[in-house]
Amino acid sequence: MTGLFVVVMGVAGCGKSAVGQRIARSTGLPLVEGDEFHPPANIEKMRRGIALQDEDRAGWLDRLGQELQARPGGAVLTCSALKRSYRDRLRGFVRSLRFVHLALTQEQALQRVAARDGHFYPPSLVASQFEALEHPSGEAGVLSVDASLPLDEVAARAVAWLAQAA
Ligand SMILES: Nc1ncnc2c1ncn2[C@@H]1O[C@H](COP(=O)(O)OP(=O)(O)OP(=O)(O)O)[C@@H](O)[C@H]1O
Ligand SMILES: O=C(O)[C@H](O)[C@@H](O)[C@H](O)[C@H](O)CO
Asked: What average pLDDT does this structure show over 111-127?
């Protein structure tokens, strides 16, 4: 699926990394892990239980946009992209950007984040993710998938949608 750009988005714990890896494997596109490009100050803030604000995310989103542009053959990006303005910011970097939204309830997200060992993101911040989240339904190029389905099923739905769109 050369030339395809897709963001796997949603709240902490929704499965962005796990699903992103599967989509990258199936499509042959490179995976860009959004969390790897947060400045250290953002990681430290989250680790300490302080929610990121628009100004913390602005430079990070621009960096991610540049990472997409650096891969003209297409890419799969994992990025929370919680607000419409964040998604539009990313859309400014590549044409026809697609988003796969992994939709999960707050209880399910909390359960997953709390069960995860050795990750910097604390369960205490999950509520803030839902406060920030603006659902992407109604925006162009968006697929919403029930993230509580089995991982392989979530990924298969996303890949089928991307294949149809490509
Ligand atoms: N569909 C699923 N069914 C069951 N478990 C899942 C599913 N998707 C993800 N998980 C598990 O939930 C946890 C969170 O997944 P993952 O780390 O991929 O989420 P994430 O959105 O990348 O989170 P973060 O952005 O906080 O890093 C992991 O332990 C993962 O294995
Ligand atoms: O925008 C944000 O608040 C962040 O990107 C978070 O979503 C985390 O980085 C991630 O989910 C934890 O791994």
From this structure: 93
Domain containing 88: what range? 4-165
CA distance 83 to 133: 6
Tell the burial category of 103 from Cβ atoms under 10 Å away from its Cβ (0-12, 13-18, 19+): middle
Rg (CA), the chain: 15
For a ligand 2 pocket test, name from 36, 89, 117, 121 the mutation site with the most ligand atoms within 8 angstroms of its C-beta.
121
Q: What is the DSSP string of 128-142?
A: HHHHH----TTSTTE
Fill in the amino acid letter for 40.
Answer: P
Number of domains the chain contains: 1
Query: Any residues with Cβ below 6 Å from ligand 2, and which?
Result: 12, 35, 52, 57, 80, 82, 121
Q: What is the pLDDT of residue 65?
A: 98
Query: What are 76-116's pLDDT values in tens digits?
Result: 999 999 999 999 999 999 989 999 999 999 999 999 999 98
CATH number for the domain spanning 98: value is 3.40.50.300
